[in-house]
Structure formats: C-alpha cells, structure tokens
C-alpha cells in the first residue's frame, strides 16, 4: 500500500495562496481597497470646492498650494486613525474567523501544518496591508498632483523644496509608515489568535492606538513616548526639516519591529499547542476574556501614564526656540518674496525668541507661547524697530509643533502675491519639528 | 511483507479537566477495510477522531497514520488522509467549488479544477457547485465534506457520522461509495451512533463506551455474538402464536400497546419457531425486522438496554418504532 509522503506537500506557498484568495473574496478588504483608491480623490475634491483647509494637521494649511502636501495630510490622518483601523479590519478576524466558521478542523486536516498556515496567513495579510498602503500612497499623490499640482513644498524649516525632492520625501514618508502599520497588523493577529473573537481583533488595534495617543499627551519624558508604536507613524516628520535628523525614524522603526516580533511570537506560542477540541469542549468566543483584557489594559495604561515622565525631557524652551526661530525667519523671507519684495540671498532677520510653556512644568509637550521679537534696522537715534510677534504653539510629544498667531500680528490665512493670486500666508500657521532625543 | 496498517493507535488517552474522553484506546485499521466506530453520544468517538487527525494532543499513547508517526501538533500534516470530524465546515462566503479549490491548493499547491469537478460529480453536487455554501442544506454540506475528503485521493478516510443529515438514498450512495473505495484499497474508519446506518457498509467494528473500547472485531463475529433480533409479527392466529411462544425457550412474543405482536428471538432460535408456527397451522403474514442482531449487540455493549432478556428486546423494538 502506498504510504503518505513523509514531507508535507502543501507548504507555506500553498497556505499563502489560499489565504490570499480568501481575503480577496471578502467584502471588508475590497471596501478598504475602494476607500484607499477613491478616498484621497474625494478628499481632494472636497478641499477643491471649499476655501478652508485642515490647518490643525501637519501641512494642512498647504493643501491648496502643493499636491504633495495633500498626500502628507492624508498620511497624517491615516497614521492617526486609518492605518491602525485598517490593520484591525484586515487581520483582526484572520484567525478568529476560523473559529467562528469552525474551519480550523477543515484546514488543519489537509497537507499543511499549523506552521505553514500561520506563516501563510501572515504573508497574505502582510501583502494586503502593504498593498493597501501603497494604493493609498499612490492615490493620494495622484489626487494631489492632478487636482492641486506639482508645486514645490514648503519644508518644516520654512524653505522651499523642489518638486522632485518633495516627491522622494513623500515616498519615504509613506514607506516609513509600513513598519508601524505591520506592528498594528501583528497586534490584531495576537488579539485574533488569543481571544478567538473577531470583534476584539478588529477594534482592538484602534483602541490601543487611541490609548497610545492619549499616553503621548501625558508626561514630558522621552522613553515612554518613544516606545509607543503609534508615535512611529509620525517618525517621518523630521525628514522634512532642512537639516533632517533621523533618530526618531530609527527608533520608530525599531520599536515597530520589536512590537511585530513580540506579538507574532506570542501568537505562535499560543497557536502551536492549541487543542482543537470542537464546540463541546473548546472555549467558545465570549466576553469574559475580552472584559479581563480590558481591565488589565486599563491598569496597564494607568501604570504607563505614571511612567510618562520617564527619561530626559525632550521638549524644552531652548530646543523650541532653536527650532521656531529659523522657521519663522525663512517663512518671513518667503512671504516677502511672494509679495514681490527683493530678498537678498542668505538674508537673515534679527529675531529674539522667548518661549514659555503654559502650566506649571517648563518642559514637555502641550501648549506653549513664543514671542519672536524682530529687530528691524532703522535710521535715527533708535537703531532698531522692535516688532514682537506672538505665537500660540502646540508641541506634540514627538517634538513637532504647530504655531499660530492672531491675524492682527501676521495677517489673514491667505494673501495676494505680487501677481495678484490668492496664496497661503506662510506666517499664518507655521509647522516645525525639533529633535527630542 | 506485512502491509502497513492505515491506522495504528496504541494506548491513546485524552482527558478534559475531570473527564477522561478517551481511555487507553487501541485501534488498528487495515488497508481495504471499512471499520465502523460505534458508540452512543459522548462515548468518545469524535475525540478519538480528533486525536487521529492531530487536532488534539493525546495525554498518553501514540498514533501512526499510513506508517508515519503523527508528530507534534505544530508539525502535523495529513498527506494521504481525508475526512472530517463532526459536521464538515466550510467558508460560507465562498461557493462549494471555491472551497474545494482552496482545499486542493492546500494539499497540492494548485487548485486542480479537474479533480474538483470530479469530486463534486461523485457526490452529486455538480449543479450546485457555484452556489455559496451559506445556502447549502445540512445534507449538501455533508456531501461537500465527502467531496473534500475524496479530492485528495486518500489512502485513509476518517469520517465522523458521514450519513448524518442525508436522505435514505444519500445514505445508500455513501455506503456504496465507501465499499468501492475499500475495494480499491482505501482504509475507512467511519463513526456513527446509529449502527443501522452503517451496518451494511462495514467489515468490522470497534465499539466505544465511556471512552473505552468495549468490543472490537469483524462484523461476522459481532453477529455471532449478538443476543438476538426483534420483529413485528402478523399471523393468521395471534393467540395461538402467543401460546406456542410461551413454550419455546429461544423466543418471546409480547403485545405492543397498539395490539401488534412483537417477536424477540435469540440468535439461532427463530428458524425453529417459524417451522413450529407452520406445523401448528399458523400462517405468517408479516415478519418485519425491527432490531437487527448487530443493533441488539450494539445496545448490549453500550449498556443502553439489557437485551439478554427477549422481553426487553421486544420493548426495545417498540422504542425503535416509537422513534421512527
């Protein structure tokens, strides 16, 4: 009699192809693909018919000026909410669905081992996640370029970047979000494997993302904020300053990799020895475990909130002044150029900055006030005319800030340039980043 | 050279908390053999099949399938083994055909549509193959499960209650199919809690009770050891038949609540009693088997009723009728 071959025939590739086909057959991934494809165009279309702009978001004020800014705004929105949610929808039900449909026994009684199925599922969901991320990136760039144009982008230091450099940096920014997205995919896999509950798997990453965003607002230490994988979605910001620094990017990617390794390792340890005992004896999906997880998570978040001051202070008045002053200088010169005034190469304003944090602690993220006093040479007994400009500055834990000044100081959000066109007033809202590490 | 057993399990034990679902079970299924795995609900049949499929890790004992040890749970692969445990389960959002194509891909790395068409045709699902599984009846899912098992041309089939949900024609078709596969050399282990459904298709039986093997052997040996059978009897003179039975050691006749006669006969006693009725001028107008020898043996082994007593066997027949 012909015995069975000693080695499995199916293998990882077979499991991957099977899972890929299953994912492609489901409604949720198809809808996600549709949203990734059409969402940026819809967003750009809405902006086109509206005069306002999402100024609270990094680069939001520039969405009418450069197509690349639109892509970056989409990336900022996606990093905050979209990508963790997308990760949950793709991977949160990946393993739990086998429990819900009772199909573990179907797939585990073929020629593929658990190891193959686990690897195949991971490869398939990774391919889908990266595919959707790429689709969203391409769609957002295409929407920006087609509906706004390939105009140069203003850097986070206030200088103009060429279209080519802008495009490269935008591509790198999207690429930098792949590891944190895969970290959330891994988290969704872990929740899916351990809870066997698709709802927990799908919504869990978004809830964890929300918790991390809240934790990022607490405390002024560097270490905890660096370990939050949600912060890695913003790690591309320092690439857009005129002298880029890479510390946050490296830390963000490493933290993402650690999250991936821990989540997937724990998932596999749980799955590899699991007994598939059927409906009568197996643990059915229920709410006991999710409730326990929620209680444990709340306790963990409380402990982490207390650890928010762990490490050196990344955001100080000195660093903020060093970051906001050149940006203000460059944007002022850009404004003057747009107004048709002659600006000599290498021109520099005499600016005396003064920054203080609202509240008790003089360091950390939150609301700051910066007064930039410009000394303008003038003839006469008083050699300088002092012009103070006060900005309300919101600083995030990753060191990136947004500064806004009342129109009485810097004018309205838009202005007419030398050719009479309506353009963004560069000084109305300023964005920048300082190195917290 | 001794052929390799398709299934060889030694001393299998599986406990769930305080319950021992499978208790020191030994099992051998040879190539070309159709073995029935019998037992009432909760006897441990499904747990035993899950152990054979590698879905559960035994607390003790070992399993060889087609000559190969089953291996640790994360490395179990079942080349050459087909079948299902409990009700076959599929992805409801896919068609029956797409489900089979996915399973074929898991087996061979290709979707092998020719084999899928062939498997669907063998179970009579060609016309419904394009429909989503969510719209399938229980019987259709059962047929699809059998198709999934046949898809890989198995050398060993492990089937958990394959006739569940099938109409009588479906049960007959499955029986014929399994006999044909066995003739081709496939080893088949088929579980059921209804011996009547698989009696005709099995060469041998293993009977479980409370997780332990209480009997194992060929169908012929089981019939020989059977305590008896029960029949519905209709005669030209019921009163005379009752009188004759009272003086006959191997048979017993009772009246059912509906007034019909129930004849319980120990193995080997029926022929003599029928001749006696004829000699006494009592014509037999109907003699219908209600409880077969194998069924009576099954009930005796599983302790559901005490069938050594012919009256109890007749009462069992009434229960069978009430069930129908």
In terms of quaternary structure, the protein is heterodimer
Secondary-structure-derived class of chain A = alpha+beta
What are the segments of chain B in which pLDDT stays under 50 over at least 5 consecutive residues?
none
Mean pLDDT of chain B: 84
| Rg of chain A, Cα atoms, Å | 25 Å
User: On the 0-100 scale, what is the average pLDDT of chain A?
Assistant: 85
Strand content of chain B: 25-35%
Strand % of chain A is 5-15%
SSE series of chain A:
HHHHHHEEHHHHHHHEEEEHEEE
Largest interface: A-B, 47 and 52 residues
Strand order of the largest sheet of chain B: 6-7-8-3-9-10
- Terminal Cα span of chain B: 49 Å
Listing every helix as H and every strand as E from the N terminus to the C terminus, the arrangement of chain B reads: EEEHEEEHHHEHEHEEHEHEEHEHH
Q: Give me the number of helical elements of chain B.
A: 11
Calculate the terminal CA-CA distance of chain A, rounded to whole Å. 68 Å
From the alpha carbons, calculate the radius of gyration of chain B and give it in angstroms: 23 Å
Number of helices of chain A: 14
CATH architecture of the largest domain in chain B: 3-Layer(aba) Sandwich
Overall description:
- Chain A is an alpha+beta fold.
- Chain A has helices spanning 11-25, 27-49, 67-91, 96-101, 104-107, 114-147, 163-176, 178-195, 198-216, 223-227, 247-272, 288-306, 317-338, 407-410; strands spanning 153-154, 160-161, 350-357, 366-377, 384-395, 400-404, 414-416, 422-424, 429-433.
- Chain A folds into two domains: 11-309, no CATH class; 317-433, no CATH class.
- Chain A has 14 helices and nine strands.
- In chain A, the strands form three sheets. Chain A has a five-stranded antiparallel β-sheet with strand order 3-4-5-6-9, covered by helices on one side. In chain A, strands 1-2 form a two-stranded antiparallel sheet.
- The termini of chain A are far apart.
- Chain B is of the alpha/beta class and 324 residues long.
- In chain B, 35% of the residues lie in helices and 27% in strands.
- Chain B is built from eleven helices and 14 strands.
- In chain B, the strands form three sheets. Chain B has a six-stranded mixed β-sheet with strand order 6-7-8-3-9-10, sandwiched between helices. A four-stranded antiparallel β-sheet of chain B has the order 2-1-4-5, covered by helices on one side. A four-stranded antiparallel β-sheet of chain B has the order 12-13-11-14, with helices on both faces.
- In chain B, helix 2 crosses helix 3 and helix 3 (113-122) packs across helix 4.
- Chains A and B meet through helix 1, helix 5 and helix 6 of A and helix 1, strand 6 and helix 2 of B.
